[in-house]
Amino acid sequence: MSTPQLPSDVRATAERAVRLIDERLPGYLDGMYLHGSLCWGEYFDDSDIDFVATTTRRPNETDIAKLQQNHRDLPDHFDGFYLPTTQLAEDPSVLPVHPGVLHGKFTVAHHCDANQVTWQELAERGITVHGPDAGELDIFTSDTVLELNTRTNLEGYWLPRLQGLVDTPDAGIAPREAAWSVLGVLRLHHALTQHAITSKSGAGRWGLEAMDERHRPVIEHALAWREEGRDDGAFADDAARQSVTVDLLSDVLGQHDLHPTDTP
């Protein structure tokens, strides 16, 4: 697989992150890798820059303070985490806490992107900014763990999200939220049924063929928002958009025996 061409601003941000680490923590960084939308060639104006930085050691308090300082000098959409290179060979669901940043918030915790999907992306198509080529790394991959993590995500995040929409039927959702919900849940549905990962846009295009025809308008609506940043006008208002989003989420989760409780 050929490596997607990085947008100039993305490469500049990633290379700046590498320079800051080398300046403030010489000898700490092993590698800097990008994944997410970028590795699928689907970087859009509002996309995050998702990174995994591999390091030569577990961080001490000084390391953590300097990493946090670095991220004050980097864009808020530069999202990712730091962990020793050897831990890529481990099941990500059992990792200890590690430094990371999400939407500009730096923490030492279990980063939400330290999961089997990220490990699979790195192994299959990770983009190398610094260090050994991603294809040469020892990275843990497991179809069993991917399936388990995906189902856990459906149960722990998407079912409560659906329940919230069911409980507030007239609240309405904006195009951005609908696109996040539709393409996000289709991506997990694809992983469980096709036993392979794909991008959000890839999941949407697959869903156009795999899902019931009644879902086509909201999937096309989600793709238009994600890829072009536009509301295609398919729905009269936010409440109508919410109704069809709930229908798709209910269909997907129902196929995996997950159902919201009925409201009174």
Automatic annotation (TrEMBL):
Keyword Transferase part of the UniProt annotation: yes
Cross-referenced InterPro entries: AadA_C (IPR025184), NT_sf (IPR043519)
Keyword terms: Transferase
Superkingdom classification of source: Bacteria
GO terms assigned for molecular function: transferase activity
Domain Adenylyltransferase AadA C-terminal: 179-233
Transferase as UniProt keyword: yes
Protein name: Uncharacterized protein DUF4111
Organism whose genome encodes this protein: Yimella lutea
